[in-house]
Specification:
- Pfam families: PDH_C, PDH_N.
- InterPro entries: 6-PGluconate_DH-like_C_sf, NAD(P)-bd_dom_sf, PDH_C, PDH_N, Preph/Arog_dehydrog, Prephen_DH.
- This is Prephenate dehydrogenase/arogenate dehydrogenase family protein.
- Keywords: Oxidoreductase.
- This protein is of the alpha/beta class.
- The protein has 2 domains: 170 residues, NAD(P)-binding Rossmann-like Domain (Rossmann fold, 3-Layer(aba) Sandwich); 107 residues, Orthogonal Bundle (6-phosphogluconate dehydrogenase C-terminal fold), CATH 1.10.3660.10.
- 50% of the residues lie in helices and 11% in strands.
- It contains 10 helices and 8 strands.
- It has a 5-stranded parallel beta sheet, sandwiched between helices. The chain has a 3-stranded mixed beta sheet with strand order 6-7-8, with helices on one face.
- Strand 1, helix 1 and strand 2 form a beta-alpha-beta unit.
- The two termini are 25 Å apart.
C-alpha cells in the first residue's frame, strides 16, 4: 500500500465492502473515505460497524491518493468523470467493472491531466450482494486484470497493481478487447447460461408443477448464478454485448455438436465427455 495514505471507495456493495474489510483489518493506518449513493447502504455499513459514517458527497473523496469505483459498469464512466475534476494532483482512479471498452470510450479524454484512470477488474465476486455479503479474503489468490491506457503514467499503474497485490490478488495487464472477450467467456456467459437454464425450468414448471419436487444437486450448482444481482448483470450484459454475443454464438455451435452426437453418433459420447472431463480436471487443479 505504498503511496496510499487516503483511500476512497465509491459503492459499498459486495466488492466495495470487501475492499473496506480487507483494508481495515490489514492496513489500519490508511484513512478510508466511503461513499454510496444509497443512504440505505450507508446505514447498513454503519450498522455493521464497518465505518462510523459515509461521506455525504463525492467531493469528500477529493484528497484521496487512490479511489476505487465499485458501481455497476454502466455508471463507472459517469462517476470517474465526476470525481476527477476535483481530485488532488497525482491522484489515481480505478474501478472494478466487468466491461472495459465501453467505459474507456465514454471516459475518453475527459479527465484533467493531473489525474490518472487505470481501469481494473478483480475476477472475484458472488451471487450475493450488499455490504453484508462482503468478505475480507474475497480477493486472495484471485486474478485482477488491469487495462492501462497508452497515456497512463507508470507510477499510476504501479500504484493500482500494488493495491490489489496487497489485498492478495494476482495482477495481469491486458488491453480492453482482450479483457472483454475473456470476461465474456469466463464470467458473463456462465451467468447467461444460468439465467437461461432457470427460464427453461420455469417453462417446464408451468407445464408440470411436480418438476419442482425433483431437483438434483447438479441443478442447484448450475443455477446458483441466476440469483445474482439483477441491476449489476443487466448493466454488464448491456455494456459487453458484442463480446458476449460472440462467445454465446460459439457456445451454441458447441451445443449443436452435442445435439448431433446425441441424435446421430451416440458412439462418440464417451470420447466427447472424456475430453471435457480432462479439461475440467486440469482447470480445477489450478483453481483454489
Amino acid at each position: 500500500m505504498e503511496h496510499i495514505r487516503h483511500l476512497g471507495i465509491v459503492g459499498l456493495g459486495l466488492l466495495g465492502s470487501s475492499i473496506l474489510r480487507a483494508v481495515k483489518s490489514n492496513y489500519p493506518h490508511i484513512h478510508l473515505h466511503l461513499f454510496d449513493g444509497s443512504r440505505q447502504v450507508c446505514h447498513e455499513v454503519e450498522a455493521l460497524g464497518l465505518a462510523p459514517r459515509c461521506a455525504g458527497s463525492l467531493a469528500e473523496l477529493h484528497e484521496c491518493d487512490l479511489v476505487v469505483v465499485c458501481v455497476p459498469t454502466g455508471a463507472v464512466a459517469t462517476v470517474v468523470i465526476a470525481l476527477a475534476e476535483g481530485m488532488k494532483r497525482g491522484a489515481v482512479l480505478t474501478d472494478v467493472g466487468s466491461a472495459k471498452q465501453m467505459v474507456i470510450n465514454e471516459v475518453g479524454d475527459r479527465l484533467p491531466a493531473h489525474v490518472s484512470f487505470v481501469p481494473g477488474h478483480p475476477m472475484a465476486g458472488g451471487e450475493q450482494s450488499g455490504p453484508g455479503a462482503g468478505r475480507e479474503d474475497l480477493f486472495a489468490g484471485k486474478s485482477c486484470l488491469l487495462i492501462p491506457l497508452a497515456t497512463t503514467p507508470t507510477s499510476a499503474i504501479e500504484r493500482v497493481e500494488g493495491f490489489w497485490r496487497a489485498l492478495g490478488a494476482v495482477t495481469c495487464r491486458v488491453d480492453a478487447r482482450q479483457h472483454d472477450h475473456i470476461a465474456a467467456l469466463t464470467s458473463h456467459l456462465p451467468h447467461l447460461i444460468a439465467f437461461s437454464l432457470m427460464e427453461t425450468f420455469g417453462d417446464q414448471l408451468a407445464i408440470n408443477p411436480q418438476t419442482g419436487s425433483f431437483i438434483g444437486r447438479s441443478f442447484f450448482e448450475q443455477i446458483r448464478l441466476a440469483s445474482s444481482d439483477v441491476t449489476v448483470w443487466t448493466s454488464i450484459f448491456e455494456d459487453n454485448t458484442a463480446a458476449l454475443l460472440s462467445q454465446t454464438e460459439h457456445f451454441i455451435e458447441v451445443l449443436n455438436q452435442w445435439c448431433a452426437i446425441l441424435q446421430e453418433r451416440p458412439v462418440e459420447l464417451h470420447g466427447k465427455i472424456s475430453h471435457s472431463s480432462v479439461l475440467a480436471n486440469r482447470l480445477l487443479g489450478r483453481v483454489v
